[in-house]
Write a structure and sequence with these properties.
The protein is mainly β. It is 7% helix and 51% strand. It has one domain. It starts with a helix and ends with a strand.
């Protein structure tokens, strides 16, 4: 359970903390970056002012309980003279679950409004006695190879300063989440693995996502939603079993917001569900039957 909330929050991003992605053959993986539609600000699936709320849930044996909350908020500001989005992701365990294992998460990401190019990222994670702090600055010089100037600390490894490799396909987790919402489904082949690359702590990771298709899903507290289902296969590690996929359902409308995500972990099943939203750019038309 040590990293349950971190994993649940970032299932939203189709990625997870401290795990290596599955190494699969090149013949089963599409090459290049995530195929996206236009990422000019006016064409994006989202806009400044959007706020999403999620409830985190845990099941194991007789335990079947909501254990945490997470919010994803988006606004705009000026960073280095450039208009940018700022995403703030906050997660915490409930007061009851704090008695067993207290978790607080604060992820912040700055990326350009046109093009969604990452500019800055910070992370402040506190899980029981474990602490992890990241500060990234993306260096897009133009005269030299780009890189991430990283200042990382963890209670297990201490503090390190390092440069991480950077290319046009590498993002932090919040920026990757917003990029993926602009995926071009006309260019994504069902059941083919596509790479998503992200930086966290002191390394670069790959997650391979798979598009499965459309599905109508009943979601607790929300209602019946027309969705598009994805999965991502990850190796076994200190959280996942490695036997089954992460699964995420996104709204089948122009917003493309995650409404449900779940995965089997070493002990039980972790999941999260959308339970509140505001400031959406488009009508939530995929919610076909709202729960009373």
């Amino acid at each position: 359970m040590g990293r349950f909330l971190s994993v649940a929050v970032f299932l939203t991003f189709m990625a997870c903390l401290s795990l290596h992605a599955e190494n699969v053959g090149r013949d089963t993986v599409a090459s290049g970056c995530i195929p996206v539609r236009s990422v000019l600000e006016e064409d994006l699936a989202f806009c400044a002012g959007e706020r999403l709320q999620f409830t985190m849930h845990y099941e194991w044996g007789i335990i079947n309980s909501d254990v945490g909350r997470a919010t994803v908020q988006l606004d705009t500001l000026t960073l280095g003279g450039e208009k940018a989005f700022r995403c703030i992701v906050l997660g915490s365990t409930t007061k009851l679950f704090d008695l067993f294992f207290k978790v607080r998460e604060d992820f912040r990401s700055w990326f350009t409004t046109d093009g969604l190019r990452p500019l800055r990222f910070t992370r402040d994670t506190r899980e029981g006695k474990y602490v992890a702090v990241n500060e990234y600055n993306y260096v897009w010089d133009g005269t030299a190879d780009p890189y991430i100037s990283a200042d990382v600390y963890s209670s297990s490894s201490g503090r390190r300063y390092l440069d991480l490799p950077l290319d046009e396909c590498t993002y932090d987790l919040p920026a990757l989440f917003f990029l993926a919402r602009n995926m071009d489904f006309d260019k994504v082949i069902p059941e083919v693995r596509y790479p998503m690359t992200f930086a966290i702590d002191d390394d670069i990771y790959n997650v391979y996502f798979i598009l499965h298709g459309r599905e109508q899903k009943k979601i607790k507290g929300l209602g019946t939603v027309n969705t598009i289902r994805f999965s991502a296969k990850l190796l076994a590690g200190n959280v996942f079993t490695g036997e089954e996929d992460l699964t995420i359902w996104i709204s089948d409308d122009d917003n493309r917001i995650p409404v449900l995500f779940e995965a089997p972990i070493l002990v039980g099943t972790a999941s999260g569900r959308l339970d509140g939203w505001s400031g959406l750019k488009h009508p939530f038309s995929s919610l076909v039957k709202k729960k009373n």
